[in-house]
Every structure is written in structure tokens, then in C-alpha cells.
Amino acid sequence: MDSNIQMIPPQDKLEFWDKEYESSKNSRLSKTKTTDTIENDQTQPKLDLLYSSGKVNKLDSEVLDNELTSLLEEPLYSSFSYINPKFVDKWKTELQSGLQGLLLFLSFSSGKNATYGQKMQNLTYKTDSGSTKRRLYLYSVALVASNYGWQKLTFYLSDKRWADMPMNTMKYRVWRTVHLLEKVFRALTLANFILFISNGKYKTILERVFGLKLTFSKPQFFQSVSFEFMNRQMVWHAFTEFLMFIIPLLNTTRIKSHLTRSIRQAVGLPPVYIDPEISSLRNGLCPICYTEEMDKAKETGIILDEFKIATRCRITNGYKANCGHEYCYVCIKKKMSREGTSCSCLRCGNVINGITSI
Predict the structure, then answer these.
(1) If you write DSSP's letter for every residue of 214-279 in order, what string do you get?
(2) Which intervals hold domain Pex N-terminal (predicted)?
(3) If you ran DSSP here, which 8-state letter would residue 165 be given?
(4) Strands (E), the chain
(5) Which of 21, 22, 190, 353 has an alpha carbon within 20 to 30 A of 47's alpha carbon?
(6) 3-state secondary structure (DSSP) of residue 311
């Protein structure tokens, strides 16, 4: 190359170097374009994977938003119920729509293109083209307006009983059209959900209409979302349901009686505590009736005299226990059935295994 440069006349050296510079520049540009094309080809599958991944996170975000709305509805209704008890029943649909619109506006106006539930799941809305913020506001208006309008329309048709009108009237045709539209919308919702399960892009029909795709706001952390809290909540929920199912089947009175009897026998005490007042009752009075009457008297503040005690606590259809003390048949049978096949005598503390008629 040096020999070629020496052969070039001095006036043509500047032109020679300009041509060399342009040639090398064009070569670098062509390499850069090739590299960008390769990177774009490699990036597109990653973006598609990012859109399609996280289906569970997207569904969970919707559940979280619904739970947040439900939590805020209760204090909102309570605050208005103090002003006028019938206000909530009359304007419940308007309050729900207003609360939903307020939550969407506050979420999207805070600088992030996501609702509160979506932020917790590391999600955000993105569009392929155009202004995302503008589409989000239009999406919010369409969502709130469609829900409100549909609820008011169906309530009006149901309240006016348009479905019971003659089939040749306009009102019945309107109701039939609305009913058909509802079926079509449900079919479209099902089809959209199947597509969402397939590609994970559009969770609802409105998101598909406005071209809003939920993606991870921080893609490098899209696999680090922890479900530990949710799993723990599910375990506690299942455990609580199990307890609610099993507790009514347990005889708590029998369990308490057996535990008390076992503990007192272990420490050398009688099976039950013997009240001196009950043990000294005269014959002909039922200890169980006496205990119940005294409990009622303490609750109501009534003082029982000897005559009332003798009248209300007299043994009816008396039966004698194996320990020798007498009870009303109904009273002793109830006590034995509550505590199991046997119970403790209130007079002496011995175990009653059987009773005989007097």
C-alpha cells in the first residue's frame, strides 16, 4: 500500500484518502445494520415470551384489584348509611362505578401504567404503538361506562318486567335483543379467555380492543415473584374450613367433662366439684333443676325463696341413679347424653352409669 501511495501524485493524495475513508465507513455501517437485524430477530422472540408469560400473575392481579374494591366498598356504604339508610340501596350502582373509576384514575395518574394489583404482581400495560397513557384513560372510561350502563339497563328491564310482555310488542323484542347480546358477549369472553390461556396477551375483551398488553415492568425480576404469602393464606383458609366443618361434629361438653374428670382424678380430687349448697338439698328436689334455676336467677337478678325453689325444682318422673340419689328423668338423661354414656352426680360426685325408676 505504501508503494501505491508513493505513486499517487501529491494533488491526488487528498482525494485518495477521502475515498478510503468513505469505503471504510460504508463497510462499518453495513456490519452495524447486519448486527442490528440479528439482534432484532433475537429480541422479538424474547418480547413474545415476555407477553405470553405470567398468566397466573395477570389473573392474580385482577383478583387483588377486586379484593381492594370490595374492601373499600364496605366503609363507603357504612359512611352513607349513617346519613340515610336507603341511600346505599338507591345509589349502590353509582357508588360502585364511582369507586372503580376513582381507583383506575389514581392508579394510572400516579406515573405508572398499572393498577394497584398489577403493581404488586410486577406488571404494567404496554402498547405496540401510540400513546399508552391515552389508551389507558379511554380504557378506564369504557370499562366503567360499560359496566354501569349494562347494570342499569338489565335492572330496568327486570324491574319493568319486559320479559313478561307479549311477544309481538317492542318491549319484548328489546328484552330479547339484550338477552341475545348478553349471550354473544359471554361467548366472546370465553373465546378471549381461551386465547389468553394460549398466548397470554389480552386478558379481557376491552384490553384487546384498545391493544393493551400486560407485561412485566421489570423483566429481569419476572420469575422472582414470591407466592409464599399466597400459599400460606391458602393453607390457613383450608385449615379454617376444616375446623368449621369438624367443630360442630364434636361434643364439646363430653370432651370437657372427660378432661375435667381425668385431671381431678390425677390430682386426687373427686371427679367433679361438689357444691355444698347442692349436696345439702333436701330430698325430693332435683339438683339439676336447682342449678338451672339458680343460674337463671343470677342472670335476671331475681331472688328465689324456699317456696319458689320447692315449686320449680320438685322432681318430676323421678329416677334413682346407681349412687342412690334421685333426679328428674329428663334432666338426668340430658346430662348423660351430653357427657356421654355416663355423668357425675352433683350431690356426691360419683359416676352415674345407670338409672332406675323409683
Answers:
(1) EEESSGGGTT----HHHHHHHHHHHHHHHHHHHGGGS-HHHHHHHHHHHHHHHTT--SS---HHHH
(2) 65-263
(3) S
(4) 123-126, 213-216, 318-321, 326-328, 343-344, 351-352, 355-357
(5) 190
(6) helix
Q: How far apart are CA 132 and CA 130, in angstroms?
A: 6
What residues does each domain of the chain span? 53-219, 253-357
DSSP assignment letter at 179: H
DSSP-derived pairing of the beta strands 326-328 and 123-126: unpaired
List of residues 6+ apart from 52 with CB closer than 8 A: 199, 200, 201
The pLDDT tens digits along the chain (358 residues) read: 444 444 545 555 556 656 666 666 566 555 555 544 444 444 444 555 555 567 888 888 898 899 889 888 888 888 887 777 788 888 888 999 999 999 999 888 887 888 888 888 888 888 887 788 888 999 999 999 999 999 999 889 888 888 888 888 898 899 999 999 999 999 999 999 999 988 888 899 999 999 888 888 876 665 555 667 778 888 888 888 888 888 777 777 677 777 777 787 777 776 666 777 777 788 888 888 888 888 888 877 777 777 777 778 888 888 888 888 889 998 888 888 877 777 888 888 788 888 888 7
